[in-house]
Write the structure tokens for this entry.
Amino acid sequence: MSDHHIGMIVPSSNLTMETELPRMLRAREESEPADRFVFHSARARMRHVEPEQLRAMNAQAGRAAAELADAKPDVVATACLVAIMAQGPGYHCTAEDDITRVLREEGCESPVVSSAGALLSGLGALGARKVAIITPYMKPLTKAVADYIEDAGFEVADALSLEVPDNLAVARLDPAGLREHHRRLNLSDVDALVLSACVQMPSLSAIQPVEDEIGIPVLSAATATTYRILSELGVEPRVPGAGSLLKGAKARTKTGGGHGRESVV
């Protein structure tokens, strides 16, 4: 049996990252008990999803990374997608590099994953080019997320903003609502649906049912982050009942646009 230690940099008000990722990897343990996953978190202060607090949270990433380095995790994931995407196209590369530098200074060789970069990798792994997204954000932040995705070479055909600015309130959203919200989007001719472009908005229980209903791949920031974590660990990215991205198909992908990163899994 192999133990894989996962470090997570989590917004202080996030209740979902430490719920959905462990649920997925516990499900994987049940189906493939040779791999076991252990989680370690460091928190960065953020209560409201607004530009000033997002920038302030990003500034705490180095301190959080240094704390995680003491645990010598096998991979480190930073969890707030919008905090990174709101800083402008390609910022996930900067954020990942900054955290990597701190880890190396602390003697930790862990690879670094961001939920923002993971979402792009996930879309690339699915071969998607035209997508629709659902976010809990106010419309200006949703536009920033859509612009970021488009800069990476994908087309965002439609987007739905649920407009919930309080981060704790986002965590309390019922994922069952996503089984209805997606019907408000134009999904004609799209290759994939991002059911939750936010690791705080619960969606895991809706991913597979919505995918089964609409007949195209459905993913979320959380499933994409899980995909990247497993890939960085050298473990087949397979989780039962979590959508096409986590069915385990191996692919060589390159996210589009000048800021994308190539990954081989």
